[in-house]
Amino acid sequence: MIYREAGDFKTSYGADNQTFPIKFDRRGYYVVLALAALLLPFIVTDYWANALLVPFLIYAIAALGLNILTGYCGQVSLGTGGFMAVGAYSAYKLMTAFPWMDMITITILSGFITAAVGVLFGLPSLRIKGFYLAVATLAAQFFLVWMFNKVSWFYNYSASGQINAPERTLFGVIVTGPNTQAWAQYTFCLFFVVILAWVARNLTRGSLGRQWMAIRDMDIAAEIIGVNPLRAKLSAFAVSSFFVGVSGSLFFTIYLGAVEVGEAFGIQKSFLVLFMIIIGGLGSIFGSFAGAAFLVLLPVVLKVLGVDLLGWPTDIVAHLNLVIVGALIVFFLVVEPHGLAQLWRLTKEKLRLWPFPH
Amino acid sequence: MPDQLLFATEVALNGLMAGVMYSLVALGFVLIFKASGIFNYAQGVMALFAAMTLVGIQNGQVPFSHLINAIFGTDIHYFGWEAPAILAIALTVVVMIALAWAVNRFIFRHLVNQEPIILFMATIGLAYFLEGVADLMWGSEIKTLDVGLPQGINETIDSVTFEIFGYGFFIDNLDIVATVIAALLVLGLVAFSQYTKQGRALRAVADDHQAALSVGISLNFIWVLVWSIAGFVALVAGIMWGAKSGVQFSLSLIALKALPVLMLGGFTSIPGAIVGGLIIGVGEKLFEFAIGQPFLGGATENWFAYVLALLFLVFRPQGLFGEKIIERV
């Protein structure tokens, strides 16, 4: 049979602990990775990259970041949009201040800057939790967006208040600016997604991740068994903000190219990413990807169905989108609080027993 | 008095009036939170929904007309009648009660005993859903709401203050009406919860769910009741904000402003909601006037409330009037 552990003998501790214990999964993972890295860059078109693939990859990073904070460490954050803005603006400042710096360094550095800001706004989490903390992160959201709007140093005193990504190349290929080709955008984002997902997976199953989960499940009990809540919470904020910052930086440099902060990184963005991890599954790496894919796909599908096929006006379709997203959030919270990831887990359980379920 | 001080006083007075509006929204939050432990993010959208429904009924709009037209290719928009304000308000109250019932029946009855943060996220979902439904039902364009409330500058205050200080204060009639109505509403709510059977049941539920159940109070009924009251408060807030700045999406953002109000006042205290609203209203207007405009480039109102609440939380997490939460393992 295909989907079985049987016959797949583990002979080392490492092999016993691997992410995909079943051979079929393991092979499937490498096949998906190979397709994404070796096939898609050659066939991806502008429309597919801009409407689906690049936003999916970027939101997947943001969702991973928020999932580390909310899903693994239990600290609800409504400031994702603000932290993405920090990533975007630090990338812009780095790009214009150090034109010789390559894009990978810039993206990683802007992640670290966001991590520092995230720790700063994470400080209240040491005293408050739950939706008190959610409001504290709202303060971050509104304050940061206001700051990037008002302090003209951040947008290099440009008259429009917008920031525009200058053209930069990586290994001789243009990766930012208006002349970027779709495959370059896609591949650049894919590189970061693969690396960061790998980091996230290994962080969350290691010592640090277990500390986060202990804090999430019951903070006082975690403290008693020796988890340092200060370290655990702030490290969750730092790592999460790093991810969110990288995604914000990519969102600006690679995907949009020109950004107006209130529009691109407003409170709606924070909710969007939060919805991704609720629908995808709190506390699951796969869930972050599933949620991001779902919420990137949904408006596109609705638009194709409603506007192109049925000829409805765009505003009705946009409102329907709101209704469906809202209903889905409630539906998932009521029926399947662990989201799409849990459905996937159940499917896999069923597959292992199939075709003899008893 | 020097000019600066007079300006500051006028700004503070206007802030007080804006604070009344925040208090109205915060009141709806507190009511639901006390009775069911649900932190209702959708309160602001409920205000938007109520105001849109009111305008729609008043103008005789056909609900979902855009959707119907798009599906069936028809061209209907209006029933062709204009409802009087009182009738429209009464019908809107009925709609809000139906909404309260539906919300409890289809969402929160399934989420009993879940963690507060899950309930909170469910209300965010509800907010999106309601916003979409409201737009689909009544169209998303900005509407003017007119139920016959007085508007414009109050001449009496203007002339009296001009005689005393040589400088006329600008205070909107609508703000005064809003203050009076808010005061009446609070008095009414207090009377309701103190002197009626349902009100006492409501307080019992707020105190202890299980004990209330065991003396024969129906939790389902109380929850529908409290959501209906919150819907009514949302309607009042919606009318005030709608009359002030038109019925539009930004109405639902005042819900977010109510969050810091609650932080300040405490989640479980009705007087807290009111005092918190007033402090935030006055505080953000004065801060904008004294520091925001001259030194920071303005528009500090967007974040002042949150940062104030954040600072406040660090020193007094339970708010001004809230109950202190003591955690034991």
TrEMBL record, chain A:
Q: Where does it localize?
A: Cell membrane
- Answer yes or no on keyword Membrane: yes
- Its membrane topology: Multi-pass membrane protein
Could you list the residue ranges that cross the membrane?
28-45, 51-69, 76-92, 104-123, 130-148, 183-200, 236-259, 271-296, 316-335
Pfam families named in the record: BPD_transp_2
Give this protein's Gene Ontology molecular function annotations.
branched-chain amino acid transmembrane transporter activity
Key words of the record:
Cell membrane, Membrane, Transmembrane, Transmembrane helix
Q: What domain of life is recorded for the organism? A: Bacteria
Question: By its UniProt entry, which InterPro entries does this protein fall under?
Answer: ABC_transp_permease, LivM-like
Q: What is its main location?
A: membrane
> Which cellular component appears as one GO term in the record?
plasma membrane
Report what the protein is called: Leucine/isoleucine/valine transporter permease subunit
Automatic annotation (TrEMBL), chain B:
Read off the InterPro entries from this record: ABC_transp_permease (IPR001851), BCAA_transport_permease (IPR052157)
Principal cellular location given in the protein's record: membrane
User: Transmembrane ranges?
Assistant: 12-33, 45-64, 84-104, 116-138, 176-196, 217-241, 261-283, 295-315
GO cellular component annotations, sorted alphabetically? plasma membrane
Give GO MF terms, alphabetically. transmembrane transporter activity
Give one Pfam family. Answer: BPD_transp_2
Key words of the record: Amino-acid transport, Cell membrane, Membrane, Transmembrane, Transmembrane helix, Transport
Membrane topology value: Multi-pass membrane protein
Look up the domain of life of the source: Bacteria
Q: Mind listing the GO biological process terms from this record?
A: amino acid transport
Query: Which CDD domains does its entry note?
Result: TM_PBP1_LivH_like
Localization: Cell membrane
| Matching PANTHER family | ABC TRANSPORTER PERMEASE PROTEIN, BRANCHED-CHAIN AMINO ACID TRANSPORT SYSTEM PERMEASE PROTEIN LIVH
- Indicate the family of this protein: Belongs to the binding-protein-dependent transport system permease family. LivHM subfamily.
Protein name as it appears in the record: LivH_5 protein
**Organism expressing this protein natively:** Jannaschia aquimarina
Q: State which gene encodes it.
A: livH_5
